[in-house]
Every structure is written in structure tokens, then in C-alpha cells.
Amino acid sequence: MFKISYIFLISFLILSCSEESEMSNPFYEDYKNEFQVPNFKSIKIDHYLPAFEEGIRAHEKEIINISKNNENPSFENTIAELERSGELLTKVTAVFYNLLSADTNDDLDKLSEKIGPKLSAHRDSLFLNEKIFKRLKSIKTNEYSSLSSEQQRLTDEMIRNFEMNGANLSEQSKERFIEINKKLTELSIKFDQNVLKDTNNSELYISDEKELGGLSEKIKDQAKRLAKNKGYSSGWVFNPTRISMYPFLTSSTNRELREQLYKMYVNRGKNPNEFNNEEIVREMANLRLEKAQLMGFTNHAELSLQKTMAKSSNGVNALLNQVWEPAKAMAQEEIKDMQDLIQEEGNNFALQAWDWMHYSEKVRKRKYDFDSAEVQPYLEMDTIRDSAFELANRLFGIKFIQKNDIPKYHPDVDTFEVLDKNGDHLGVFLTDYFARPSKQGGAWMNTFRDQSNFDGRVRPIVLNVCNFAKPNDGEKAFLTFEHAETLFHEFGHALHGLLSDVDYPYLSGTSVTRDYVEFPSQLMENWIRHSDFLAEFAKHFETGKPIPKRLLEKMSSAGTFNQGFATTEYMIASMLDLAWHTIESPVENTEEFEQTLFKEIGKPVEIDSRYGSTYFGHIFAGGYAAGYYSYMWSEVLDSHAFEIFDKEGLYDSEYAEKLEDFVYSSGNSVDLMNQYKKFRGEEPNVSSLLRKRGLN
Ligand SMILES: [Zn+2]
């Protein structure tokens, strides 16, 4: 996953001085440390609201000044000034929303309900400012040809952003537009809180050890600790989060309990309690439709896809259609293998969704004699993280130096200074890898500050957040192979932020289109999957010995195992997302809407959507509405891109240099497809992806 939407929304509101206030507030001051990392320790809950209010006020004043400037509109007096504006607001927004996702509490949650609508209204007042919009258009008509190519790109992007945010609307429509945005913000905040609360609200409590059949000591230990945290004096607790549920579904021999826990997971946001999201989902989809139609689009997807590489829902469907049938066909083969095994074991039931992980693991062991737990001793978390650092060093010459005097917001955070190939400061990198109740689920990258060069060299501060299981005190942390891939994935986003070398913050780092942004991140996963890379870096935590060849061979032949399932569950979610955002009349009932779609597309009963509507945070609380397909779109790029390293060498210097120049450093300062072609020498096509997933 990638940046949270709130920051995404106002990401370009950077820089310029706001007026001094009398009240002491860390946001009003220079952070006074070497790299200007927020002083988390001195920031208290009471500092946020005044800083937001002051930040909005100051930014509004700056915008009025820009719009009222008597000089002819120029890039310098309008666009560059917009880039400079909103310094305080950007500062407080970055801290607030990063903590709201990574380390929240009731106070922050409550505050977010107040702040979200304020920001949304502020954002509208900027985008609906006619004078600014006129100035932008005048720059396009008059000064454009004399601007640098990055300045031209910035001008175009800003104009398009204004248009997409309603700048061309009539007065009356603008009013409704603002109302809709405000409502959507409120609903998405509520949606997110409901998912977290409904997740924490349900649990599988086991008091009898006999019910723990099949579970390893390690899994039991974790469940025991969870029970203690939840206030039980004995027993074991599993909850409907992936980190707790996946090991249980994989190992537990108790089919009834597997079903119970699985159903808890897929029913999140659907339970008959105060955290139910069904109405919110329906209302949000309908409001998005109304907004799109207000702007002259047939549906929300057409509005939102305009700015992407796919360009329209037809573009998205063209990709999905090429993959859907091969994926389903492969899933049917996987089902057959598992069903055979069920029969062989003397059982008579038909495989269900809650059986999938359990039987696929058994088939994996049988077919490939490969137990994913065998790999874990070679995947000590710090070793894997260091191998990611080493990869970045070999490809781009950069270094990660751990520095403990950099401020952090939680004791689990690790802090690094990043040096470029000349040994100069490149940026700051923070990792926050362990799961805890105050953290949203999933993994993501975000920034505390974006890179830019136009007003002096501003270096990025980049954060990676994951949800890996925290070990007992004094023990080492180990990753599953999937978690090792996640670490590399988020590290790829981090590199995109750290290596960014553009002039304007609006175009910096990961500010690219949604269907391109997962390309630099997913590309990194290819290395950790490569057997030569693993052979060098995956070392046994006790003996230091490299991972045995026979294990690597087994892993590599098992590499495309279960891809029918993985592809199918992802694609169902993509189609669900697209369905919600291509409606052309309001939806009456969330559950019915889902079920109708699933029938239409021929969803296999044994596989559910990777996310159900009521906990599909990407599209109802994140920035991925009509964009969940992006991961696959990006995968077309990353599969095709990695083939060249597979062929020319994992650290091939010629392609590594092009990768830095045309992908990781250029942000959104140039046309993305052209850049890709410059790096790779040709256009991407879907066949590399089908090959990689074993679907061809
Ligand atoms: Zn991502």
C-alpha cells in the first residue's frame, strides 16, 4: 500500500513563512535538529488543532495574495508561489496523518473527525479560486513555450488538478461539489475507524488446549500473549487480522474454528453493531457518482482515471480481461488438487474459502516437499532489511547509516541517515516494522517531508510502516517470505522518495499516477525472490550459513504455486472496486450490489475478494477509488522491467543507472511512459506478467 489519502490530497501545499504566534507550539518553530525531523517528544495533542487552524489561515492569506497580485500572471509569481505556500499546514499535516495511521489513540481519532472536514473545505477553497485558475490558464497561453520542461509539466498538472477539482463548475454546482467533498471526507474517516474498531471488537477465544491442534508452539505463544493483552488470565486469542488469522488458517486442524475466525474476518464492517459500514459504502459510492456527473462525466471511474496511464475504465478492463480467465483456470486446477487431498484424507466436504490456506499448504508440502516454515530461520528481519540496503548500494551507490539521535515517535522505530554515492546527505529513512493495536493494518510508505530543489536543496524524510509480528523481549524477529517481500516492496517506495531529484515538490518522488506508483516498489520485490540474491543474503540466524541450495530450488519451483488463487482474489477486488465506481445510478443495497457482481463475473465460490466492500480501506478510506487495478498495471511494468536484470545481471550497472535516471529520481517531472521506454528501450506488455505468475 502507498500514501494515505489525506496527505496525498494536499501534498503540494508546501513552503513559505507564516506569521509568528505568541503561543509556544513546536510546529511554529524550527525543529532544531540536524535533519529537521519533527520533534515528536515535544508535540502534544493540544498543539495540533491550533497549528492546523493557524496553518489554514496563513495559507488562505497567501493564496489571496497570489490571486490579487497586480502583475501579469507568471510562473514565478503564481505557480512557484503556490509551491512556496502553506508551510505550516504541510508541517502539521505530515506529522498528524502519519501518527494517525501508525500510532493513533482515541484523542487523535477524535481530532481527525474535526480536522478532516476543515482540510477538505480549505482544499476546495483553493481549487475553486477562480482568480488563481485564470492565472494558471494565462500562463499556459502566454509564458508556456519559454518555460523549462519540468515547469511546463507542473503547469499542465496544476491546471488539470484544478479542473478535476471542480474549477470549471458553475457557481451553483460548486456549492454542491463542496458539500459532497465534505461529506465524503467525514464518511471515509468513519469508515476507517469502524474497520479498526470492529476488528478489535471480535476475537476467537480458546480455553481448551485440545482445540489448538496443528498449531506450532510459536503460533500458540503469540495467541497466548494476545489473550493476556486482552485481559484473560489464561487461554489463547486469535483475532480477525491477517497477522493472527493467516497462521491459524494455515495450520489449524480444527475446521469449525477455521470457519469461525475466517467469517469474523470477512464480516468486518458488516456486523449488526455501531461499526457497520454498509450504509457508508453505499453513500460514498453514490456521492462519488453525483460528483462525477456534476462535472460532466458518466461515472466516477471516468473522472478519476483521466489522469492515469490506463486513461479510462476501458483501459483497465482491457488489462483485467487478459488476465481473468487464465487466473480462474489456474485456480480451478489448484482447487482440484486440494479437493483430491480432502477425499484422500477420508473426508467428504467440498473445499471452502476457510480451507484454502490449510490445504494449499499441504499440497505445497507434498508437491514441492516445501514447508514455508523451513525458510524462516534464514529470514531474520534485520538481515533482510540490511540486504535491501545492500541492494540499494549496489544499484545506486547509496548507504544507510543507523543513527540513534534522530527523533522517533515510538520506541519500535529505527532511524537512518541515507548518504548518496558521493557520501553526501541524501535523506532520512525511518522504519516502523512491528504490529501494535495503535497501528492501522497493512504496510505503507509515507513522507514527513518531500524532496525539492527549486528554493534550495530540501531533502526527504521517508517512513516505512509494516505489521510484522513482534518477538518476545530479547528474541530476534523473523519474517515469513511474504513479509520479506513486503519489506522490499515498501523499501522500493522509500527509494522512490529518497532518490527523487526534481525541482518542484508537487512533482516529487511518489507523486506519480496511481497506476505507476507501485512500479518502483514492486520492482524491488523481484530481487528478494531471485535465488541468486537469496543465496547471498538469506543466512541462518544461528549458524550464519547461507540458505541451502536444495531449499532454494524447492522455493523457486514452488514460486508460481497458488498464483491462481492470489491472482483471482486480487482481480475480484479490482473488479469490485471498478464496479462501485462505474455505477451510473445510485446503489440501494451494499450486500446485494456485491452479490450481483460476483454472479456476473463468475466468482469461484472457493475464493473471496481480497477485500470485501465493508473493509476495503484502499477504496473507501485511502486514495485508490477506481484504482485498485493499479497494482497489476504496475506489475506489467515491473515484470517487464526486471526481465532485463535477470538477463543482464542482477546489478547491471548500465541498467541500474538508467533505472535511477528515468525511474527513481524523476518523480512526476516527465511523461511516465516515455521515461519507462527510455529506461527499458521498449514498451511493456502483459506477457512478462503472465509468465511470472505462471499463467501463460
Ligand atoms: Zn505499494
Brief overview:
The chain has 696 residues and is mainly α. It is built from 28 helices and seven strands. Zinc ion (ZN) binds at residues 1-2, 489, 493, 518, 521.
3D structure, described in words:
- It contains 28 helices and seven strands.
- The strands form two sheets. The chain has a five-stranded mixed β-sheet with strand order 3-4-5-7-6, with helices on both faces. A two-stranded antiparallel ribbon has the order 1-2.
- It has helices spanning 5-9, 45-68, 75-84, 87-102, 106-127, 130-142, 149-164, 171-201, 217-229, 242-251, 255-266, 278-294, 300-305, 313-344, 356-368, 372-375, 381-396, 481-498, 514-529, 531-537, 549-557, 563-581, 590-601, 617-620, 630-648, 653-664, 672-680, 687-692, and strands at residues 204-206, 236-238, 399-402, 414-419, 425-434, 444-449, 461-468.
- It is mainly alpha-helical and 696 residues long.
- The longest helix is centred in the middle third of the chain and has 32 residues, at 313-344.
- Among the domains are: 5-127 and 129-164, Neurolysin, domain 3, CATH 1.10.1370.40; 202-266, no CATH class; 377-557, Neurolysin, domain 3 (Orthogonal Bundle), CATH 1.10.1370.40.
- Bound molecules: zinc ion.
- Zinc ion binds at residues 1-2, 489, 493, 518, 521.
